[in-house]
C-alpha cells in the first residue's frame, strides 16, 4: 500500500514557489503540459485508491490509515497551493506571469480538490471528519457564512429569542469567517445541522432543547443555561424544594435525545455531562446542607472531598467503558453495579469536571459508542507497549 501523492507533491514543490527563479518556466506551453500531467496523475491516484480498498478486503485500521494519509496529503498540498496562489499576487507585478501562475495554481487546486472530494464521497467510511477543511474549500464556505449569520439572527428575532442567546448561537458562524480559523468537516456539517434546526424551531423556548439535542457544548451556552435555571429559583425556596427542582432539571436534560456524533467542540465534554455534573454538585451540597442543618452544624461550602479524589485523564465515556471492561473481565468482583458506579462518580474527577455525574457515568456504562471503544483500544495498546518495558 504505497503512498500515491509523491509525484504531485514534487510538482507542487518545484512549480508553486513564490521566488522569481521559477518565472522563466511560466509559458503557455509549460503550464498547459503541467496541468495535463497533473490531471492524468490525479485520475491514476483515484483508481489506485479504489483498487487498494477493493483488494484489501474487510475494512481495518491499517486501511483507514492508508486512506486518511492521502486525505491529509491532499489538505497539505491544497493549503500549499492556496498560499502560493494568494502570496504570488503580492510579489509579482508582471501581468502576464501573474495570469499564467494564477491559472496554473487554480488548475492544480481544482485537480487536488477532485481527489479530496473523491475520498469524501466514495471512501467516506475512511474519511477523517475531524481533519481541517482545506483553505481553498473553506474560502467558498466563508462566502456563505455571512448570509447564514443574517438568516439565523432574523429567524431567532422572529421567535423573540433572548438577544444574548442569539449571540451565542451566531458565534460559531462568526468564527468561521474569521481569518486564520480552521474548521473540520464535522464542524461544518454541525453548522449546517444547526442552521436547519433553527429554521424549524417551533418557538423561542424550544431553542434551548434544540441546542441540547445538538450537543451545543460551548462554554457560553453552558453558562447561559445555568443562569436560566438559577433565574427560576425563588429566594425563599426551601432546601427540599430546591433539591426537587434541580432533580427535575436533570430529568429534562437526560430525556432530551442526543445525536451520537454531534458536538460543537470536540475538546469539551458533552453539554449534558457539563450541565448534569454542575446540577449534581448543587444537589449534593443542598442535601449535605439540609442534613447538617437538622443537627445544628454549619456546612462546609468547599467542594466535597475534592482534594482526595482520584484525578484521571479519562473522559466520562472512557471511564464508564473502562469500568465495564473491568467488570466483564472479572477483574472487579463487585456485584452491585449501581453502588460501584456511585462510588466511582464520587471519588473520581477529570481535567474538565470536578464532580462526575453518577447519572452520566451510568448512562454511558450501558450505552457506549463505537468511537469510545476505538479510543479505549488505542489506550490499551499504549498500556501494553508500556508494560513490556517494565
Throw out a few tags for this protein.
15 helices; flat; two-stranded parallel sheet; mainly alpha; 390 residues; 2 strands
Low-confidence stretches: none
Strand % is: under 5%
Indicate the structural class: mainly alpha
Morphology:
flat
* Overall pLDDT metric: 82
> What does the largest sheet look like?
2 strands, parallel
Describe the structure.
There is one protein chain. The model has no long low-confidence stretch (mean pLDDT 82). Strands 1-2 form a two-stranded parallel ribbon. Helix content is 68%, strand content 2%. Helix 2 runs parallel beside helix 4 (95-122), helix 12 crosses helix 14 (358-366) and helix 12 crosses helix 15. The chain starts with 5 loop residues before the first helix and ends with a helix. With 390 residues, the chain is mainly α.
Quick synopsis:
The protein is an all-alpha fold and 390 residues long. The protein is 68% helix and 2% strand.
Secondary-structure blueprint:
Elements: H1 6-15, H2 28-56, H3 61-91, H4 95-122, H5 135-158, H6 163-176, H7 185-199, H8 204-213, H9 219-231, H10 239-255, H11 271-293, E1 310-312, H12 316-328, H13 337-347, E2 348-350, H14 358-366, H15 370-387
Amino acid at each position: 500500500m504505497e503512498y500515491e501523492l509523491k509525484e504531485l507533491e514534487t510538482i507542487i514543490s518545484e512549480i508553486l514557489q513564490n521566488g522569481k527563479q521559477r518565472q522563466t518556466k511560466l509559458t503557455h506551453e509549460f503550464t498547459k503540459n503541467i496541468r495535463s500531467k497533473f490531471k492524468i496523475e490525479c485520475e491514476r491516484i483515484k483508481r489506485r485508491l479504489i483498487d487498494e480498498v477493493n483488494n484489501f478486503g474487510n475494512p481495518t485500521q491499517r486501511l483507514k490509515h492508508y486512506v486518511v494519509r492521502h486525505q491529509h496529503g491532499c489538505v497539505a498540498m491544497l493549503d500549499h497551493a492556496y498560499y502560493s496562489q494568494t502570496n504570488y499576487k503580492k510579489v509579482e507585478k508582471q501581468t502576464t506571469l501573474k495570469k499564467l501562475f494564477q491559472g496554473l495554481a487554480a488548475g492544480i487546486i481544482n485537480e487536488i480538490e477532485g481527489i479530496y472530494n473523491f475520498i469524501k464521497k466514495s471512501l467516506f467510511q475512511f474519511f477523517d471528519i475531524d481533519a481541517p477543511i482545506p483553505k481553498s474549500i473553506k474560502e467558498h464556505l466563508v462566502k456563505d457564512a455571512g448570509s447564514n449569520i443574517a438568516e439565523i439572527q432574523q429567524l431567532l428575532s422572529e421567535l423573540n429569542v433572548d438577544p444574548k442567546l442569539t449571540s451565542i448561537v451566531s458565534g460559531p458562524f462568526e468564527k468561521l469567517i474569521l481569518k486564520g480559523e480552521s474548521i473540520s468537516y464535522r464542524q461544518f456539517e454541525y453548522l449546517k445541522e444547526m442552521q436547519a434546526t433553527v429554521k424549524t424551531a417551533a418557538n423561542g423556548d424550544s431553542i434551548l432543547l434544540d441546542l441540547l439535542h445538538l450537543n451545543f457544548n460551548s462554554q457560553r451556552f453552558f453558562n447561559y443555561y445555568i443562569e436560566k435555571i438559577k433565574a427560576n429559583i425563588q429566594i425563599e425556596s426551601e432546601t427540599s424544594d430546591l433539591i426537587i427542582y434541580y432533580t427535575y432539571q436533570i430529568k429534562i436534560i437526560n430525556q432530551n435525545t442526543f445525536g451520537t456524533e454531534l458536538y460543537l467542540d470536540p475538546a469539551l465534554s458533552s453539554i449534558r455531562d457539563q450541565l448534569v455534573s454542575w446540577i449534581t454538585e448543587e444537589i449534593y451540597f443542598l442535601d449535605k446542607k439540609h442534613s447538617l442543618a437538622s443537627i445544628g452544624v454549619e456546612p462546609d461550602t468547599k467542594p466535597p472531598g475534592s482534594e482526595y479524589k482520584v484525578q484521571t485523564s479519562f473522559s466520562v465515556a472512557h471511564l464508564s467503558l473502562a469500568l465495564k471492561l473491568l467488570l466483564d473481565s472479572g477483574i472487579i468482583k463487585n456485584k452491585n453495579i449501581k453502588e460501584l458506579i456511585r462510588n466511582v462518580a464520587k471519588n473520581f474527577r477529570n481535567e474538565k469536571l470536578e464532580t462526575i455525574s453518577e447519572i452520566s457515568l451510568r448512562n454511558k456504562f450501558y450505552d457506549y459508542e463505537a468511537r469510545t471503544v476505538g479510543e479505549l483500544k488505542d489506550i490499551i495498546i499504549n498500556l501494553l507497549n508500556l508494560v513490556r518495558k517494565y
